[in-house]
Amino acid sequence: MKLFFHRFDLRLKHTFTIAHDSRDVQQTLIVELRDDNGLRGFGEATANKYYGITIDRMVADLEAISLPLALANGGNSNLSAEELWDIVHPHLAQNPFAQCALDEAMHDLVAKRARMPLYKYWNLDPARNPISNYTIGIDTVENMVAKMRELPWPLYKIKLGTKDDLAIVRELRKHTDSRFRVDANCAWTADETIRLAPELQALGVEFIEQPLPADDYEGQQRVFAQSVLPVIADESCIVEADVEQCVGRFHGINIKLTKCGGLTPARRMIEQARQAGMQVMVGCMTESSVGISAIAQLLPLLDYVDMDGTLLITNDPATGVTLDYGQVFYAEENGTGAGLKSETAKR
Fold first, then answer.
1. Is the same domain home to 175 and 232?
2. Same structural domain for residues 159 and 254?
3. Helices assigned H by DSSP within the chain
4. Is residue 80 located within the same domain as residue 133?
5. What does the pLDDT average to over 26-50?
6. Per-residue pLDDT at 347
7. 270 — phi, psi (to 5°)?
């Protein structure tokens, strides 16, 4: 197996602002894993300043595993994605974003070898897949309303973390009957969350995502016990070991493939959360159709999903699953269904 790297600058339709970041361009790395028979698997991870992940770092770390990758293959076409994950994890433990891109690519490749879509390879039934929300970043209220009008959608996730959060949700509610979710990205206190929850519930909000800082364990326990709305962990649930820490502090977890290291650990996290009686969501990091198509394979296992990355950008370099008014449609291809639009990608 050989690795190829494709770098892209994804241009956002609007400046995307959350409580701790604002950007107009999202750098991303698409990893291509090619076997000796010419089959190609694709995976993706975005750069992330908050976690100290750059494209150059991902490429360097993945190039450094060329030897173990070659030894892992060894002409064995039956190598599973999970086996490859275990082999390379000691080399990529400090860079889960890079491991994610490789893991997605290997899952894509394995399902293509089996000549079936990945979700079918896993024996999953998509009949009751959840719909995806569409995210409205922090902005002036007028601009947030304009973004909703630009793309009517049945379910919006509203980014919050300002001094006027409740007023924002009240104003947005005047312009749509769609369901809301809110994401404070660690910007609230426990008292603030408990106080706002009843009013947000009355405004049609179905849950609150990560209201408190990740290390506010005492506050999380209070919110879990007293909030009238479910609370979903994001920054508090990065890797597999975090799932156990969320029990009794959150009603559910939001898994990001790039943060946990790909589809392989994500499936284990889903199982852990289910055993603990928690709800499960998977979120995106403004990936192209490559990363979004990987997320889509997990849909039958989820309660909620945030996979609107391709809707937020203007220059998607790939093809794959599509979204229409929240509903996800799989590509008629094997693997994850993702592919590059052009072979002129920067390598």
1. yes
2. yes
3. 55-63, 66-73, 81-92, 96-113, 118-121, 141-150, 165-173, 190-202, 217-226, 240-246, 257-260, 263-275, 289-296
4. no
5. 95
6. 38
7. -60, -45
Q: Is residue 346 part of a domain?
A: no
Residue closest to 160 by CA, chosen among 132, 128, 199: 199
Q: Does residue 347 form part of some domain?
A: no
Predicted confidence band of residue 23 (pLDDT cuts 50, 70, 90): confident
The span from the first CA to the last CA of the chain, in angstroms, equals 17
> Among 64, 99, 115, where does a domain finish?
115
**Segment 68-123, tens digit of pLDDT:** 666 566 545 678 999 999 999 999 999 999 999 999 999 999 999 999 999 999 99
The reported pTM is: 0.95
Domains: count for the chain: 2
Structural domain including 25 reads 2-115
Sole residue written with tokens 């592919």: 339
Q: How far is CA 63 from the centre of its chain?
A: 24
The predicted-structure confidence for 220-274, as pLDDT tens digits, reads as follows 999 999 999 999 999 999 999 999 999 999 999 999 999 999 999 999 999 999 9
Name residues whose C-beta falls within 8 Å of residue 82's C-beta, 6 or more positions apart in sequence. Answer: 264
Residue written as tokens 């094997």?
334
pLDDT value at position 342?
Answer: 76
Burial class (CB in 10 A: 0-12, 13-18, 19+), 25: middle
CATH of the domain at 334: 3.20.20.120
Give the gyration radius of the chain's Cα atoms. 20
Contact 147, 16 (CB under 8 A): no
Question: Is 136's pLDDT higher than 90?
Answer: yes
- Nearest-CA neighbor of 107 among 290, 250, 235? 290
